[in-house]
Amino acid sequence: MHELSIVMGIVDIASEEAKRHHAHKIDSIELEIGTMAGVELDALDFAWDVGVKDTLLEHSQRKIETVEAMARCTNCDTVFKVTEPYAPCPMCDNLLLEYLSGKELRVKSLTIS
Amino acid sequence: MCATCGCDHDANVTITKTGETQYKPVKPANLLQIPSPSHHHLPVSKEIQLERDILHKNNLRAKHNREHFRSKHIFSVNLVSSPGSGKTSLLERTLRDLKNEMQFYVIEGDQQTMNDANRIAATGVTAVQINTGKGCHLDADMVHRAIHQLEPAENSVVFIENVGNLVCPAMFDLGENDRVAVISVTEGDDKPIKYPDMFASAELCIINKIDLLPYVNFNVEKAKEYALRVNPNLKFLELSVTSGEGMFYWYRWLKAKAFFCFSTQLQKAG
């Protein structure tokens, strides 16, 4: 349950940015979370309400863009969608993969007023 | 960043050197409170593109720690495992066996108590205890504060014993040189595929308590095969802290790594 730490990180980023723009309200926040980022969306949901309480994000609309994990096999160069984390290359069974996406954990944008 | 897990705040994190009294830091003023609405402007919505990494702050602090270790030619190890796999016992024995050859410092992470730091202090090695309160992992900022309490000397080894947990510590870079995952044969041999992130980010996997192999249903080869699935570069050491079997190879790994860090200094001096 490190998801509350993640929420606190999001609150920090959003609050700093809102303060920098002298905003008094964050209408919405857009997050980008990869399927291999190590974040459980259910746990994030649970942590969200606790983490954003009494902050500018308390009443904000939250959008989550999920980023699919993609990998390139270092043996046969096949690029494929990772359906099971750390599974081998579907073409040659090689385990040494270069992950092209899926580890994103970012605040993409904010709408402030 | 707060190392919270459930309902806490990092104001409850304490960092205490052995022999000192534990103290609770004063809770900082809440910087996240809602400022009173400005009455000068009518609200106008504005979208800001950020693309900001959520772990950015932790990663920056980890980079700072890493730079500190590098400038002082310190070899640092982040020990991760589930509770009860024998991290503290491994450290105790290592420190007793090697403290005359190298200088060691230990940062202990637990939710509560000074127990582990006191066990380390009994070996004669300086230790600080980080109590994370309800937190389930150490983060780079806690380690940064602990380093400043410890003030490790140049050409030394710093062990960071993380909170016993195979999930959360995987995400948080502390600035260490190497991450070492410990599993014991009293656990399931499928731990590496049940908790892949921890094994994916480790350099070395220690399989501890091998003296108990005749009594438990743990298949060492299967555990290694599972771990290699998530991290084909992972190295393994099988040992028993209790019987001492295999400790020689751990010491050889540790010395080789540490002396490599120290030698960058010697090359400069030479």
Description:
The complex is a heterodimer of chains A (113) and B (270). By secondary structure, chain A is an alpha+beta fold. Chain A has one domain: hypothetical protein PF0899 fold (2-Layer Sandwich), CATH 3.30.2320. Chain A has two helices and six strands. Chain A has helices at residues 3-20, 41-52, and strands at residues 26-34, 61-67, 70-73, 79-81, 97-101, 105-112. A three-stranded mixed beta sheet of chain A has the order 2-1-6, with helices on one face. In chain A, strands 4-3-5 form a three-stranded antiparallel beta sheet, with no helix packed on it. The longest helix of chain A has 18 residues, at 3-20. The radius of gyration of chain A is 17 Å and the shape is elongated. In chain A, 41% of the residues are buried. The model of chain A has no long low-confidence stretch (mean pLDDT 93). Chain B is α/β, with parallel strands linked by helices. Chain B has one domain (56-249): 3-Layer(aba) Sandwich (Rossmann fold). Chain B contains eight helices and nine strands. Chain B has an eight-stranded mixed beta sheet with strand order 1-5-4-6-3-7-8-9, sandwiched between helices. In chain B, helix 1 (56-71) packs parallel to helix 4 (140-150). Chain B is globular. Chain B starts with 13 loop residues before the first strand and ends with a helix. At the A-B interface, helix 1, strand 1 and strand 6 of A face strand 2, helix 1, helix 6 and helix 7 of B.
The helical percent of chain B reads 25-40%
SSE pattern of chain A: HEHEEEEE
Low-confidence region ranges of chain B? 1-9, 26-31
- The coarse overall form of chain B would be globular
| Major sheet details of chain A | 3 strands, mixed
**What is the overall number of helices of chain B?**
8
Beta-strand share of residues of chain B: 15-25%
Helix content of chain A: 25-40%
Question: Would you list the SSEs of chain B in sequence order as H and E?
Answer: EEHEHEHEHEEHHEHEH
